[in-house]
Amino acid sequence: MTTIRPSETLARVELFHSLPPDIIARLDTRCIWRRARAKEWIIDYQDESTDVFFLITGVARVMIRSISGRETILRDIEAGAFFGELAAIDGQTRSASILAITDATIAKMTATTFIETVTSHPDVSLRLLRFITGQVRMLANRVNEFTTLAIRERLITELLRLSRANRADPREAIVSPPPIHADLAGRISTRRETVTKELSAMEREGLVRRGRGALTLVDVPRLVAMIGDKEDALDFKT
């Protein structure tokens, strides 16, 4: 544990934005503050701990590793978010592993303090319920994709999800920095070699264009037509 710096505060966490400064300051002192290095595992799958973690700086990733060793990426967590709340609520073992993608600053709160805070502040409770509801919907969409879409369709859906609109050309979208093939494979539950093969084929077909520092989706309407009507895939960053 390191000494708390003034910038290391739960005021940066969206879940607590409705709380007054004095309560935030009190909660800050009830956390254990630490720093994680990039590629460090923060939580292991089926670990029995029940603490909740708040990501103050950095990026982390939620992953599931199968018995065969294949890793599935569920989502990335950015600064201001939190993880580990399920074990704090139901006392069960961890349902996923959490990996630090970059160096990160983390506040660790006991399950007791977390439950006390949530139940004492209706606004915090409502934010938590909305967050969990969003995660359930996201996982339901992922299950639907894994069971109904072919590998190329899953790859297109994920690329659209990761992309932002190209303001210079409304038919294009940009993924920057270009995604690592192993990460894409983890996101769509396939092998890295399969992703490489599909991207090469899509480039030959004029669907994507590789450039320095970015992967361009050349014809978004055509890509959307290939996977059907999926509103979530059209939610580009702007």
From TrEMBL:
UniProt-listed InterPro entries: cNMP-bd_dom, cNMP-bd_dom_sf, Env_Response_Regulators, HTH_CRP, RmlC-like_jellyroll, WH-like_DNA-bd_sf, WH_DNA-bd_sf
Taxonomic source organism: Methylocella tundrae
Protein name: Crp/Fnr family transcriptional regulator
Lineage, uppermost ranks: Bacteria, Pseudomonadati, Pseudomonadota, Alphaproteobacteria, Hyphomicrobiales
Keyword Transcription attributed: yes
Pfam families noted in UniProt: cNMP_binding, HTH_Crp_2
Record-annotated HTH crp-type domain positions: 149-221
Any one Gene Ontology cellular component term annotated for this protein: cytosol
Record-linked SMART domains: cNMP (SM00100), HTH_CRP (SM00419)
Domain called Cyclic nucleotide-binding: residue spans: 15-114
Keyword Hydrolase (UniProt): no
Keywords (A to Z) from UniProt: DNA-binding, Transcription, Transcription regulation
Signal sequence bounds: none
GO MF annotation terms: DNA binding; DNA-binding transcription factor activity
SUPFAM superfamilies: cAMP-binding domain-like, Winged helix' DNA-binding domain
